[in-house]
């Protein structure tokens, strides 16, 4: 089992603050350096001791046992205050029921219908672009992903004003929640409470309007309202609210961040960009991508997966032990904090050779098969693996291929992309790009 694995503690913790100043100053660098200390690494988050598994066997142990390593405790409650008890935040006791009720809406046979919306929205994304204009990558892709979620899963139009309001509310709510986690004595602040209230009111409005229309549109919300548990009971209004709010977050910021980071990496690696462009041109010939094209764009998919490895949006996943358990050579009592960090695993040189190198070919089937089963956490793992992985993979391939079939994205003057510090979703702070219209390829 894990008897030969080692544990270590990061030195240099400050009184009361622990390693928080180092984490705040350079979170990516701090996390990437943890595997050098050992297989299970402890650091201090304020006065709290946090365990970070860095070895694939320890990752397997934590990912696979969601009963022992559960979502809960005072840290996690901060985020449950925002999202409620939806699929992404609920504890083990509620998770299997919720996943069973949601799973039919994410079957493979539903993806072609959702992908029709993805294609239309990918075309809409670039419709207002002009040659030589400047866009900010993350907000542009956020509009795309939110429209896709709203129109494919909730069958509703999302005006730009609502997109802006939702994005701003999520940002302020999670920034406030993170401050409450890291600096618990500080009050949450008026902006945090206003953002949480705005999110709740917006979702209540969406669900209420949907119910009033009383039409089964064949989308996820119709499925949720019609779903029945084993005893025949339906989801309560609160449960429906929490699931919709969770989907609006999980299906938007993560994919938008992945697409934005991919653009940055392509600017930094022109040889990858040229090979990607050749595949897209050969398959699409200047048209928008469809679900049927996804299987014919394998290098595009590999580029996106490698981007997800380098910059996993969900870079810190918190767990709390529910009983006394062993990790490596350390005994953890109930209530211990364990951080599953895909960023740590993805930058561990003992798992991924030359981890700072952007190498989409590492996801060629024969090379990917040699990687440890539990090392890649771009969509989490085990019982809590992302229910919408297939949806997200199709969404990002269709968006990236459609954009690059018609546009070249060049760095805008003054571009210095950097991640937002200490954020729940790892995304660029600002990534301005210049849009250059590509000539249509000759008809074949």
Determine the structural class based on helices, strands and strand pairing: alpha+beta
Shape: globular
**Radius of gyration from CA coordinates:** 22 Å
Tally of structural domains: 1
The biggest beta sheet, please? Answer: 6 strands, mixed
Give me the CATH architecture, please: Orthogonal Bundle
- How many distinct beta strands? 11
Instruction: Report how far apart the termini are.
Output: 58 Å
CATH class: Mainly Alpha
Order of H and E elements: EHHEEHEHHHEHHHHHHHHHEEEEHHHEE
Q: In CATH terms, what is the fold-level topology? A: Cytochrome p450
Mean pLDDT: 89
Number of helical runs?
A: 18
Contiguous low-pLDDT stretches (5 residues minimum) are none
Q: Main sheet: which strands, in order across? A: 1-2-3-9-6-4
The level of helicity is 40-55%
The CATH superfamily appears as: Cytochrome P450
Q: What portion of residues belong to β-strands?
A: 5-15%
Can you characterise this structure?
It is a single chain. This protein is α+β, with helices and mostly antiparallel strands and 444 residues long. It has one domain (7-437): Cytochrome p450, CATH 1.10.630.10. The chain is 50% helix and 10% strand. The protein has 18 helices and 11 strands. It has a 6-stranded mixed β-sheet with strand order 1-2-3-9-6-4. Strands 5-11-10 form a 3-stranded antiparallel β-sheet. Strands 7-8 form a two-stranded antiparallel ribbon. A hairpin with a 2-residue loop joins β2 (40-45) and β3. α4 packs antiparallel against α8 (160-182). The mean pLDDT is 89.
